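tool=predict chain=A
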Amino acid sequence: GLTVVDAYTTDNEDSSSKGSITLFCEKDGIPITVRTVVLRDSDGNLITQDAYVGKTIDVKGIIDRFDGAYQIKVFIPQQIEIHETNT
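tool=predict ok
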């Protein structure tokens, strides 16, 4: 039940993490950061932050630490479940 309020995609051309996404989420007013590796769909297309921003998600991953802060690290798209909305 995390709400994705914003996101950042790594776009450094010289980095192997180009395309990795950081999702800035909230749950009951508590900020939670989710970091992905480069994610691709079943056709091999890059999954972008637009797939998640503004949506409610459930995440399965490992707890990681980056730059002194904890985050949930996700390695495959199936570790992020997007809740369908009726809008």
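The longest strand covers residues 2-9. Strands lie at 2-9, 21-27, 30-36, 56-59, 62-66, 69-74, 80-82.
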